[in-house]
Design goal:
Length: 396
Amino acid sequence: MSSPLVILILSLLLGLQPVTTDLYLPALPALTESFGAVPAQAQLTLTAAVLAFGVSQLLWGPLSDRVGRRRVLLAGLAGYTLAAVGCVFAGSIEMLVLLRALQGACMGAGTVCARAIVRDLYAPEAGARAMSKGLSGLGVAACVSPPLGGLIAEFFGWRAAMFSLVLVGAAALYLIARHFEETLHERHPEALHPAVLARTAGQILGNGSFWAMALLSSATTGGLFCFLAASSFVFIEQYGFSMTAYGLVLLSVSTFYISGTLLCRYLVMHIGVKRAVVIGGVLSLSGGGLVAGLALAGISNAWAIIVPTWIYMLGHGIHQPCGQSGAIAPFPRTAGAASALAGFLMMVVAFASGRWVGAHMDGSTQPLIMGMSFWSVAVALVAWVLVQRAGPGPAR
């Protein structure tokens, strides 16, 4: 496969996650009203998908080490598309939550294989740059999804927004079936044996570099999901934004994320991964500190959340490529398993953040502000302490 094709495939596979979580966010209040549900129930359609997404990677990763990336991708994307069809016709909030969980589980195949493909094809330093390009594509998907979802939901309803995910899944399935060539050159027949799984997991979890980089990507994701879980209710119900206007807010946030991935590429090339994440930590802490400082000063308006989130997302764009590629860099022979464990940890943090926000929603901006502030401190500590001491480590 040519390098541009590889980056396109990475962008599409990684982009499935923000499309799946972000495209329908503007419709979340309308969906809640349609089913006569409460916000906490509706947020389960997000958090259940995220949790299933994380847990499923524990299976998809070792399975891809055993049978190859291509077979796992075809199975996962087919299941994703079928679950998306079910979401369109869901008759209750409970059924929608169940189908979204299935959709998230199948989506895990795409993300875990994308990270493993990077390790299959690139050395660690080049992998960080390739991952930053793929995550730039993810950022484009995150840019397009909210305003598009807002427009579709506003004019055609939330089920039409869900139908868009059917089209995305079918397009991804076609691209893999038609153009993807297997990147795993040495399969591991025993990858799913319990003893081998335990030994592999022990090696990965005993690696300090893995923990430093996986915690980096997980902590920055925690702050993002605090924003995603609360922002539709804050901007639409509290500040009176239309669904389309809220979609444009998410578009601006994603634009800063893309800028962060471009900045990451430049920093990694010129000063290396460790120094790059130090700068990212400054941005993350500045964003979280600013949103908390403005709230303490009594400044309560949409811009007091949007501007700090822009700054936070610049740091997020640096930490994700470095963290995701760095966590699997030491494990070229078990990249699928390392990708699975890193992805599982990231989504557990995302699920916990979303659930915490949902449980504390009180009609104010406080849950969003407190969550982002907490995770900005955590990101800075990981970037400035753990990564500098332990990661990224050498391949073995």
